[in-house]
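User: Small ask, check this?
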Amino acid sequence: MGAILPLLLVLLLGGLWTAYWFVGQAGAREGFERWREAEARRGRELTCAEHRHAGFPFRFEVSCRDAVFTLSGGDGVTTVRIGEIRAVAQAYAPTHVIAEFSGPMTVEAADGATAEASWTIARMSMRLTPEVDGRVRASRADLAVSGPILNVIPVSGQTAFAYRADAMEAHFRESEGAQAAAGGYDFALTTFAPVIDLPDGTARGADRFDVLGRTTGIDGLPNGDWPGWLGDWRDRGGEIFLDTARLAFGQSLVLVDGQMRLDGAGRPVGAINLTTAGVDLGNIPVDDMLGLSGVAALSIGALGSPVEVEGRSGSRVGFRMNDGTLYLGPIGLTDLPSLLR
């Protein structure tokens, strides 16, 4: 009798766990379908060539092979194709989801422009909370990509630019307190050894690029109607606060910080500070003086204010955006277009 009781206990626990898993798997399947229906109502539709649920006994797994997202809105339909998406959650923590993505990925815009992406490994960790209307709210998302490559093709057969790097990381989380209630999210982005290939055949590389900031007024993902989504974001009082964008290459540093919102006409309003240290003006090509390097040169010259940057002597210059114009001090540099058109 003493040996039978432990066996009966094990069988009972196994039966209870099996029942829990099948109930949980049924809930996960129903939740996934409700999420797809909710997204489709908002113009974001997901289809799979092969859709599978698995993971017994300790995990809940959902896989979607040859995934196709169609984002309907604005001037047409944007189509995103991904080789495979596989999402896994441990049975004891179903709201913590790990997603793995298999490439390649292509994005086809309504106007014919295309972007092609590939990678070695792409993995995302997410903390999800189901909503009563079928949507899923992500309180945190962390993406890590090894060997990312991106080609942007505005016209068939012509590459506008290409991006590649050793690795890239992106992190998003809900802001705390009042900022969370206002649709606030903190974000961070890091790319290691990034290289941009330009249409003229030249390449620009850096050691590392970091972005840190936050935004308010976020209420769901866009559905392809970017002007409409940005207009709603503006109407909710949305703002972007850039704590720092840090570009490091050799002994040189370029830092950007500031904040931005949209005015009634959809034009950017705000301020941007550009800080440089260790930039060698002798290495800036003459034909690039009106590009990013030329703007950096301005900040080093007489218009900049001397500052100390990470223990180095540097210079800072401030820009402001107002009434549809980008200003450097009192000087209007260029007109700013509406982002709602």
